Amino acid sequence: MKTMKISEAVVRRLPIYLRYLTELQQREVLTVSSQDLGLKLDLNPAQIRKDLAYFGEFGRKGIGYDVAYLIQKIRQILKLNHQISVALVGAGNLGQALSNYNTYLKDNMKIVAVFDAHTPKIGKKINNLTVQPMEELEQTVRDHNVRIGIITVPAFEAQNVANAFVNAGVEAILNFAPVILKVPNHVRVHAADFTTDLLSLAYYLDNGKEDEEDGEEPMDH
Amino acid sequence: MKTMKISEAVVRRLPIYLRYLTELQQREVLTVSSQDLGLKLDLNPAQIRKDLAYFGEFGRKGIGYDVAYLIQKIRQILKLNHQISVALVGAGNLGQALSNYNTYLKDNMKIVAVFDAHTPKIGKKINNLTVQPMEELEQTVRDHNVRIGIITVPAFEAQNVANAFVNAGVEAILNFAPVILKVPNHVRVHAADFTTDLLSLAYYLDNGKEDEEDGEEPMDH
DNA sequence: TAGATTGTTAATCGATTAACAATC
DNA sequence: TAGATTGTTAATCGATTAACAATC
């Protein structure tokens, strides 16, 4: 596999390729072209070819890509050949919802522990996981070789949780709290705050409609 | 307000500015510089100034930005001056979790209806919303002037839900299902599938650690 | 006046797309 | 051989950053 600086945009697309390829495999499709992929994933075929070519020559001219082989390669690139252990802090509604995604994450990742700082939540069962107190985080992270942390606590607690994860040796964090976390350079953080996504959608609403429906939007007194 | 092509990257940052500015306002901070904002939000101050300057001259040289004024302006740009109505389809764990975010969305948006296609869910109470059957979607969307739809159903149902939203006149969709939706050009879709984010994090894991712990990762047979 | 900070231009950097020779 | 499709180069497009005159 070649080594060079890979752009973030490319890395963000790899899981999307992987997801669709897995679907193709289930449907017993053996081969796929960048054309097909582009159509399905709303991407330019040239971009897909270029993305994949960063990591090696995975296709065959005139034929396309072998689905099974490409899946294997992408999992290798993403370091998903061994299942990665994940821990989650914040056993609220969102945390509980995400804890149920193990079946979807399949062989790639597994949420192995759930923590919460607040007594009413501790000891509660979510799926087959018992909510643990924050005091056990460091030990559990080390014992299970947890490498990624998910944060689903309120904004004002998120930085503390991030610190705890970093201290425990977690290498990456997926942050659902609406706040920008400060972490050392060697720790990667992805923001997953859905309210940001939702509010930005408003920009694209059709302005024409604004005052269309009569009486729906009276002047402010 | 100037008119010109605004990049998606800029629009994605506006809600992040808005969020922090709102926090500043609650703390009764009156003025903020691009320097301050950049430090807090991990962005280049020049970028912040440029982002804002696309829409007008909101700051004062030598002083910075008036917090209240900038909030007002950003809400205007994002068309959040009137509360926007949102509907959600999929009353599973994730859907229920998101339905509870109204307090956080404040004056900006409001989830006004929740739908599900499956009888056991229908009639269920989530907060003060009753889960409605899909048959009522179109009418409810029109009655409440719902402009944004949220999809939290399994992947295989997501396209149907998107179609229903589009038919009902929804202008934008936030899609949590792990699938790429096909919609007409005038409808905006943002992907919010967290498994994609999570898997892409794996790429940034520290390779050095891979075979560090002895015996943890035996060779395949 | 001196210091701070904007708005904006120019320079740089990065990502996407088009085009096509190579080849299955 | 003819058609399809990759891998890759070059061209284009878009986003970020540096630098600084204007000015509070």
From TrEMBL, chains A, B:
GO terms for cellular component: cytoplasm. GO terms for molecular function: DNA binding; DNA-binding transcription factor activity. Residues 80-180 form the CoA-binding domain. Keywords: Cytoplasm, DNA-binding, NAD, Repressor, Transcription, Transcription regulation. Its main location: cytoplasm. Pfam families: CoA_binding (PF02629), Put_DNA-bind_N (PF06971). The keyword Cytoplasm applies. It is found in: Cytoplasm. Residues 16-55 bind DNA. One of its GO terms (biological process) is response to redox state. InterPro entries: CoA-bd (IPR003781), NAD(P)-bd_dom_sf (IPR036291), Rex_actinobacterial-type (IPR058236), Rex_DNA-bd_C_dom (IPR009718), Tscrpt_rep_Rex (IPR022876), WH-like_DNA-bd_sf (IPR036388), WH_DNA-bd_sf (IPR036390). NAD(+) binds at G90, A91, G92, N93, L94, G95. The keyword Oxidoreductase does not apply. SMART domains: CoA_binding. It comes from the Bacteria. SUPFAM superfamilies: NAD(P)-binding Rossmann-fold domains, Winged helix' DNA-binding domain. Homodimer. Belongs to the transcriptional regulatory Rex family. Modulates transcription in response to changes in cellular NADH/NAD(+) redox state. NCBIfam families: PRK05472.1-3 (NF003989), PRK05472.2-1 (NF003992), PRK05472.2-2 (NF003993), PRK05472.2-3 (NF003994), PRK05472.2-4 (NF003995), PRK05472.2-5 (NF003996). This is Redox-sensing transcriptional repressor Rex.
